[in-house]
Write a structure and sequence with these properties.
314 residues, 76% helix, single chain, 11 helices
Length: 314
């Protein structure tokens, strides 16, 4: 889960922020386009869809980071298209993860599976259904790609970058980055310091942590390397643990909805069993996160963020 250095565009504190914004956005918008084309190719590897979702998230983070330098009307178009892509890629990725997990999981019990058992046959039917849905989940991605080809995505990228406000963009990258990072740090810890009593609060921590992690990649140059590495590692670990919880909770919810739609008794029984397994795994992942994300760890991470930001501002 560690962020690749290929996402970083690190410049001197004194570099005009407009130059950094243009380089960062070009790199990320080109990554989206490359992964979108890969996701629509004949050989549909699940990792291409995963990379597409990651690229859209990081590009939206870059647009948020430099939003006051960008032309509003062109930015609005890119936000809309990237959110559509993120949703389509997210739906496809969720099906990929669930299908692969169910296909690899052994049947309950320690004895060798008996293919005559109704539960095993129901499980195989479920995996077959999910495999068909995986194929269908790529259709919206292809449709979006066709629309973006017609809309001249590459040309729109150039016009967006040409419209970066050079007047406001003459300020230094360092000063701009520190101003943009500070409220993100405050929002993250406002959510992360809660008791996290329900799933919605956990979801909010994950969202704010993701925003801060992506912003830290963009504004990496304003932090000393050791402090930056420590902050990134903690945020990546947090996302990893919360991602595990979210995947199992989402799978349990999806299986619960499927089990309520009817079907044979064996199908409903298998779906109920799988739902319980996913719910138990979600509960375990949440407990592991709560144990790891203790007050001592939170305070240490906050101090690293805040002290480094103050030191670099001095």
């Amino acid at each position: 889960m560690a962020a690749s250095n290929s996402w970083h565009v690190i410049d001197s504190d004194r570099t005009p922020v407009a130059r950094v914004a243009a380089r960062t956005l070009r790199k990320r918008l080109e990554a989206v386009w490359a992964e979108l084309r890969a996701s629509c190719g004949e050989r549909q590897h699940p990792e291409a869809v995963h990379r597409l979702r990651v690229a859209t998230r990081r590009t939206l983070a870059a647009i948020d980071a430099f939003q006051d330098l960008l032309p509003a009307h062109r930015t609005a178009w890119f936000r809309k298209q990237l959110r559509r892509l993120r949703r389509a890629a997210g739906d496809a990725r969720d099906l990929d993860v669930l299908t692969d997990r169910l296909r690899m999981q052994p049947a309950a019990g320690s004895r060798p599976p008996d293919r005559r058992e109704p539960g095993l046959r129901a499980r195989e039917r479920l995996v077959a259904m999910l495999s068909r849905q995986r194929v269908e989940s790529r259709h919206p991605i292809r449709e979006i790609h066709a629309r973006l080809v017609a809309a001249d995505w590459p040309g729109r990228v150039e016009r967006l970058l040409d419209g970066i406000a050079c007047g406001r963009g003459r300020r230094s990258f360092g000063a701009y980055a520190r101003r943009r990072l500070k409220p993100l740090i405050e929002r993250f810890f406002a959510e992360a310091d809660r008791r996290l009593r329900d799933d919605e609060e956990i979801h909010q921590v994950r969202i704010e942590g993701k925003k801060l992690r992506y912003a830290l990649e963009i504004f990496a140059g304003v932090y000393p390397p050791r402090a930056r590495a420590r902050c990134q590692e903690s945020l990546e670990r947090l996302q990893e643990m919360l991602g595990e919880f979210t995947d199992h909770a989402a799978a349990a919810d999806r299986l619960d909805r499927w089990s309520s739609r009817g079907g044979s008794h064996a199908d409903r029984s298998t779906l109920a069993q799988l739902r319980r397994q996913e719910a138990d795994l979600a509960k375990k992942a949440r407990k592991n996160f709560s144990k790891w994300w203790n007050p001592t760890r939170r305070r240490a991470l906050r101090r690293t963020f805040e002290r480094s930001l103050r030191r670099e501002s001095a």
